[in-house]
Queue: 4 jobs
Job 1
Amino acid sequence: MELIVKEDKSFLKQIPNRPGVYRFYASNDKDGELLYVGKAINLFKRVKSYFQKTVQQSPRISLMIAQIVRIEITITENEASALILENNLIKSLKPKYNILFRDDKSYPLIRISSHQFPKIDVYRGKTNQKMNQYFGPYPNVHAVTHAINLIQKLFKLRTCADNVFANRSRPCILYQIKLCTAPCVGYVNNEQYQSQVDLAIQFLKGNYTQIVTDLTMQMNEKAEHLEFEAAAAIRDRITLLSGISGSQIINNHNQPITADVVVAKSHSNKVFIYLISLQNGIYSGDKHFIINDPDANIMVVLEVFIQGYYLEHQHTKLVYLQIDEKINAGLDNEFLQMFYAATKIRIISARSAMLRKISKMAEVNLERIIKNSNGDNELKIAAAKLASLLGIESVNRIECVDISHHQGANAVASCVVYQDGKIDNSLYRRYNLPDSVGGDDLAGMKLMLERRFKAVDLPIPQVILIDGGITQFKMLKNLIQTSELCGKIRAVSIFKGENRNPQYDRVILNDLLVVGYRDDPGLFKLLQGLRDEAHRFAITGHRKAQIKTMTVSGLEKIPNVGAMKRKSLLTHFGGIKGVMQASVDELQQVTGVGLVLAEQIFAYFHNE
């Protein structure tokens, strides 16, 4: 249904008292600008409220109403359909006046496969319940990794890839450090392994009491058969399990809760949200969100968040919501009705002492996030100070470069970026340098900067920061002056002071101006942070390059190790790591590898 807005408001009579979605446009054209998308249980009442003078609107919404020329109405079967349709339209059309919640991530799951000897791993994507079992989703990959590490310690399930599992001829290092039972080489039969899988599933469901009961029975059975070492190992697992259970924030396993605890606060035209996820009574992770609040209305923002997040991630049926105590209001009843109809998720306040404790913890973390968010302003102030010292209008982008290598090999240059008030790791870049650079940092830096200046698709920074003294500063300055970017970029260098104490660092801004830490600690916080981050990023890249050299091309560089021997070695040891860790005697067990060749391979990987 399409309506043209008129001053006499006669168009309102055509709007039905039905659930649905409405769209406001700024022109009569079909391709006119979309201003806003909304939903309602009663379309007539909702749309009418925008055109009533008695209803108080924010300045931003009032400006939007003044631009409405055309309205499109879509009637839906029920309120659930209206909420889902609105969410889809906002995501696809991105209306000008809607508050947008962007969260396109797929959250990680724990997957237990359906193999004869099931594998446990981290999984993202569509699930196939017929083939595998899934647990989660978890708020972040660290929570999943932590859970899998615990399961390996307790139940020793395999985590290796199928091709590695199928080609093992001896146990890997995980068996040696007691994190796997080596089903790949038959050290445990299918029945024994499956019993451990069943316990792991009970663990992921939070049934700790049942696991302890089962393990205690196993321990007593082993003791009765005088298998005291096996009984002691099970005892240690029970102790570990009890320790894990006791250290959890939520450990009421008689009443396991699967729910999210959500705390929200408004600060500086933003709404800060902290979410703690509970899986079967166990704390499984947390995450936070920051959403713009242009109308200073936390309830509207919370509705946007709850709708956008839980329509995509329906991993719970219960959300405990705590809003800033200063705000004496709650979510709109109509929204709660529509949301429940669409998702069957209930939103209530935390009543029990246990949940209030969780909410308090979330609140403390949220305060820390709000406090840290103010750090962006500090960086902007520091950037403005730098611009003043350099005599330029503003500094919106700084690029800091560094080099890492090992005796000239695998040299990697890094470039980290400050842009628009924050150090943005999504803009970082690495440059692999040729072996001809050797250990000459100046030559490597020069080569890297020449490549950077040729990258016309990248924004031009106002400042390039380099780690070094006057020599490095002059090199950078000369390089800029002889490039097409002369006059557009300023050179700055930072060098370490006495005893490498950060408070004695110095910054060179030009040939005559050297600034000390005590002159402006805020400025140094920005520049030192960039310098240290560039150093870390360069070292990380160098180490990856070094490992790649040793693993990917390592065997190829060893004399008398051809394609067939490489394949035999990798198959026998299950990968390059197994080859690197093997002794001379173990290497000789591979077909075609004698004592001399085994010693050569061992010496290559151990720098002998």
Job 2
Amino acid sequence: MTQHLTISRRGFLAMAAASGGLAIGFPLGAAAQSAAGSGSPEVNAWVVIQPDDTVVVRVARIEMGQGTLAGLAQLVAEELDADWEKVTWEYPTPGQNAARERIWGAMGTYGSQGVRGSQTYMRQGGAAARAMLMQAAANRWGVDVGTLTVSKGVKSGPGGATLTYGQVADEAAKLDVPADVALKDPSTWTIAGQPVKRLDTADKLDGSRIYSIDVTLEGMLNAAVKQAPVMGGVIRSFDADAVAGMPGVVKVVQVNEGAVAVVADTFWRAQTALNALPIDWDLGENASFGMADLEAMLDDGLTAEDAFVGNQSGDVETALAEAAQVVEADYHYPWQHQATMEPMNATALVTDDRCTVWVATQNAEIDLAVAAETSGLEISQCDVNRINLGGGFGRRAAPPDYTAIAVRLAVEMKGTPVKAIWTREEDQLHGAYHPATKARLRGALDAEGNLTGLHLRISGQSILAGLLPFMLQDGMDPFVFQGLQADSTEGALGYTVPNLLIDHAMRNPPIRPGFWRGVNNNQKAFYLECFIDELAEAAGRDPLEFRRAMMADHPRHLAVLDKVADAIGWEAGAPEGRAFGLCQHMGYGSYVAAAAEVSVNGDTLTIHRIVAATDPGHVVNPQQVEAQIEGSFAYGLSAGLLSQVTMEGGRVQEENFDTYPIVSMWEMPAVESHLVPSGEFWGGVGEPTIFVATPAVVNAIYRATGRRLRDLPLAKHGIAI
């Protein structure tokens, strides 16, 4: 029996938010057939074959520079036996997805889910399309399909006859989709697994690539937005008449209780008028909150009784009480902003019976729900055109406040498209920030220098409590424990400690939390891996040997650690005047490690090189994985060395890149990547290696200088690169 999608706007929002990591088997047949039967060249939901033999792969995930687009197309082309030179792509919309009973599944691109969360059903889509195209050719020739062969989309049949995919696509689309299809063994891949050229490079190079901020529609107006400078602040009043006569101004609109926008013929005119608009703010109770308040809040959590337990075994308190030596240290990780190169923006057009949005988003299904909610229309009356992202890093996953603002303005200007753009300052001051946390770690060492007990207390903010409270589990945020779970395909602890307690005292300051590339794995790797080095020193043992002793039951963690240690020359030792540092972690299904080589001259740090190893199970495009490693190191080192978000008077202080710097190209170390896929599983590559860059560098700094740095970024300690 076919189940039709009947769900409220709010229900759709919840479903879309919760389903990003869910991998299920989607139907390849009936829903796809309905479109194909009308003469469309669609073979199934994933594959369109055009008469000129162009293969269009439908990609449900979004491209934001990480290479998901090409990777997924490679997997489909591999199963299809297509000619890569004739492969292109298109995005289905969330409205189309809803109308076809979510035939394309979850559209969210986050949590390093782009390839690993889609690979099974996309490969099945390619394999099913191949079977249908082969059967169509066999039917035309009147032969058994088993007698045919195919290479690069050209089928060979009796007497040397050939047919291309384009010649039989319409016939194939009318066939029943096979219920069961065999997938190729990765060892036989010729397209997947290879560093083939990306599908989105040429138009970036020639400037024809359109990003959300570039969208231009006939008759379009532009809007500039100003939100309350303090979270929770509201507008008391504003004087629209004061700017109504300025050039190009069309209307001043109160978007919500805490935001106002000026709509004009150009963005510059809208922003100029907005800057001149008199606004009286009620900043509310958060207007006095500052860094001293945050410190007190986090410090309170380090000793609080109210803590959620994420991982526990044995009796930690007894182990600490009976230890030959107890090592204790406190660490701190600050707020971070995603700082995408393309600031938040969206374009919307609302009529009496239709709402259409053009936006760069990591989860278009949530934007669809927000469009429906804001416009007052049904989901079936709304759609979202997905535009490639000029950076996402989690900010464009949630919340889609920029979409809500654009739709609200389009409702006000019904029948006229409106593009709402946030300035860099507006973007920086109204983000969804990586949580600030502290950690207190206590380790018990026996007389032989073995770790017999470990208590890791985390104090700080919960992303789910701030954004998606319905996903809390009896009040606990399980995401807090990323990378520290006892047994998790997403992020398992890589050490065996007989007595262990990892818990979280939730402390939520008045700033909106959000997903930031790598999310909670970043601070957990920093806390644990730097403390492991402290324990090794206290035990009088080599940091690599100390780790290895606890990793016998964690062979994949150990394999990547051994790889970087060998590649950097750990056993031989660092060159004179330099030092090595190590780190390993698991997150988003992948095992990663890094080894850094540094030197320190006074307060000047030079990172000469970082060696990385990653085991994501399978590698679809090795060049793209290497690029992701390099990019994640740049992003991670920016946070670890240079940038942080601070607050005084309830206001974020860092308004632009002059106060929120990122690593420059000339500051980047040489990166040496080692891909060691072990098979049997699928892990992510977009985020995992970000975890290990900073801890490896911090550990190397200590070995070079004897200086323990437990509070990021390093710039606050006077260290420059």
Job 3
Amino acid sequence: MPVLLGSNLAAQETPRPVLKTVEKIALLPIKGEIDQISAQSLGRRLDQALADGCDAVVLHIDTPGGALDATFSMTEMLKDPTRTPPDLMAWIDDEAWSAGTILAVACPSIACAPRASFGDAAPIQAIPLAGLLEMAPAERAKIEAPLLADVVDSARRNHYDEALVQAFVSVGLELWLLEHVEDGQKICVGRLEYERLYGEEPPRDLPVLNAEAIASDDAFVPKFEDSIPVRSPEELTALDPLQRQALEAKVSLLPRARGPLGPEDQDQWKLVRQITSADRLLALKAEEGRTLGLVRHIIADENDLARHYGGAAIAVYELSTTEKLGRFLTSWPVQLGLIAVLLLCIALESFIPGTTVFGLIAVLCGVFLISIPVLVGLAAWWEIMLVLLGLGLLAIEIMVAPGLSVPGILGAISLTVGLAAAFTGPGAPIVPQEAIPGTILLFLLLAGGGIVGGRALRHAQQRLLVLGDVVAEGPSHRRVTIAIGSEGILESDAHPVGRARFAEGARDVRARDGFIDAGSRIRVIKVGFEPVVEIVES
């Protein structure tokens, strides 16, 4: 159930004018990294808020960014009039970088806390244990095209400056702020539009901080104004595939909020200042966003928010317990930890087969690795099948047919591929770049620890077995020597290690085929600390 917060208007010393009057506000926190759990949770909470009769929805955004596919799913929900009330607002509290900015622009109204920052929404590529990857210009253009299409569509729907929102996404787009000489209206223009308007190069007042970030003339960057020289679909045949993809996205959107400026308009507009240069992405503070017309309200806290809506009660719709658990168990530290324990226990079980303790822990880790992603919809069916197949084959190798090798090799391959796919697919957690060296070191230590620990436990087990023989048969007991071909009777199940009685005495033996029932007649086929035996055919 949502938590209801009173507006406590009497506590405010300086009342502000009421801007809107609604009866019930749904406050939906969007905090932390954006992922598939965020997208599914947003859909659930939007539906619940509408079912509860909320006539305003406010996204309380505080995020460093997140996955692009999840962001697209969320903006699609926010633009669907059947899933949101007419009064939809994004409230940026503290920060809304990258995906957070894309979500805010998808809302018809944006408010900020006085300390808020947002922007810097260029797509990046990263994989676990490798960190950020550099993208070639063509690859970046292919990823940027749908993102630019989405933010331009949001700007046209919500009457934001579409040149301004593009500067959040793409490096290389220079913008200048112009003001209408009569009504004070402010707009943003790019380099080409400025040159068309005034017939000269625009002044560049901002210092170049990173010249290497400026795109070269032969690198295509899909900006909807400066990089596409055509204006109609008929000219598509003259473009390369990447330019054509960007133009098709452009012409399929809503019409522009304003037409392009030309020489006839130069007396109506005056230059205010340069907004951003070609070597950086646009990032704004709250007041600067308000000056540029993107931020429409400054809201400090929930009491301020309630006053903005006429003193209405606020219903906070938090993530459910299942969603919080899913986010915790699918976070990169937890998943890496579970994988590490899984591999460590498999190694220990292979050194000491038949103990089942390490095998059970490994199975539990595998279940946790798969069950939570399944519950929150982050794992594909084939990834699940590969992991389960790998665990099953490893179990056969360790407990049923040790030494056979083929099930163990196939199981290790299947488990590795399944975990890798689940760990690097859509919605998978990304290891922060600063944590990569420590993560690699952790796996190396665990691998070495598994080998050393397994051998140490194996040695300790052997000493305990010898001590058991001495205690059972007296201090003068010497460990009996069993020769190849000696026959005896199993006194306990060999799974794969069991106790057998020979004419020479009792010994612990290992079943060649993994399992032999107690009472079976056996023959030694290999000598050692644990002689390997097989069933004697009757």
Job 4
Amino acid sequence: MQKLLKKIPEKIRLVLLTALFGMVAGLATVAFMQATNRLFALAWHRLGTAGTTWFLAGSLLTIVLSSLVAGLLMSRLCPVAAGSGIPQLKAAYWMELGVVPFRAVVVKFIGGVLTLAGGSSLGREGPTVFICGGLCSNVAAWLGIDKQKRRHAALAGAAAGLAAAFNTPLAAVSFILEEILGDLGSRLIGSVVLASVTGAFIVYALVGKQPSFFMPSVDSCSWGMYLVVPLTAALSALAGVVFQRACLDLRRRMKGQQRIPGWLQSATGAVAVWCLGSGLFLATGHLGVFGLGYEDLSAAFRDGIAWKIAGLLAAAKLVATIASYGSGGCGGIFSPTLFIGAMCGFFTAGMASCWMPLGPADHLVLAAVGMCGCFSAVVRAPITGILMIFEMTHQFGMVPALMLGTLVSQSVARLAGKHNFYNEILAQDNVAIHKIAPPHDLAAWRTLPVSAFANRKPVAVTSLDPDLLRNLLKRHAFRCFPVILEGEIKGVVTRETVHHALAHGIPPTWEAAVVVRADQTLQEIEPFLIKSNAGLFAVADTRGGPLTGVFTLHDLLRAQAATLE
């Protein structure tokens, strides 16, 4: 297959591969969507029509058993499959050249279906991005594409998967550029657009125009509605801030404790969801706390909803999602944040209607503002939020309200800190993404200084105490570490060497460190690249100075791969 691909001109080959990745991702999205929807309907629709006793017993068994099986799969086979999947794909793109193990894709698919269909309060869009990006990365490997060229496949798959999840290709493009790449002017925008359009076309052909939830068109709105927009945006953004802070805190506590094993943790969150969801269902008849909540959301958009019930649903969904994600559930945050935001919008619309006239169209617009506000506050992708709602409704009249709401929500979101939810997750997992901006031409490659590649936040061995060494290995997955004792660079030690030393109760040994200055060019240090068996180089600002960074041959490879893109 590789020989056949090489016979095709490079530009045509890139277009064909991008379209192929878009189709693969679109089909994978439809499969994941249909499996989740049908299993959820099979279990929860029947339980919803059963008697109270059968509902309570059946729902508890369903959500706990599904979470237990998913927890076992993740803890035993692939711990990286827990959570949303978007931070993990972002890390794979920047740190592993877009390579995602096929096992992680399979576990994410099965674990995601079990978790979401079982009723845990999470979303499917994050897992969809991971599944599609990882699957396309593996398709590229099966086609014989070199490892250093698979980032294109992972990125195209992620874009197509998100576009297919909502049938919103423009929002998918902006999200990939805003969140994964962090560059709205990326040279990869053409591939991202083509993949997104292909993925959206697949889901439109197989599922329909609105694959997630129904959102009707909106007639003209009253001017008074704009007075309520800031309040709606502030409330929904505040809900997003509470979610981010509480979820990260619960996740940190669950990761740090030893009493509850990893395979059981997601089941504890499932029990909390069951308590909240069952109580609200018995009181109001709404199942929105369980699963995606899209059926209740569609019904609210179509028929309206009482503002008191909307407030209860928003609060219960917020707590349930914190419990599900914080305990290690296999699912994302798109769906819950959209649901919570919409219910905040219906709540404020209903409250405001008590003292000013607001029509049905005003309620719909405020619900859309709430969706955009909560999502943007958590993800910090305001352009994506506006485009997503606009593409779902195709209503230009909504755009001014969405833009005003986004300004307010982004201001409130700063209360949660400088970083968005995904970056906070990576920081909590001790994953530091080191982005390298390479030159646009290979001729200038060798003139780049070492500082262009160096990671300025190195993780080093600073003590030979066994407990500290074990904690270092547990917290960081690096293959080798610089050894800094008494402020001096002593050498470089590998992970395997530290494991061996701890197992035999002896101090670890290390090889001599290769130290280069930050201002030296790649051409100047080429003779040193073969001297380090560990492949890690210590960086100092001055000769004989303290360690200020590290870089590896893997960093050089990633930068070269970015240049080839």
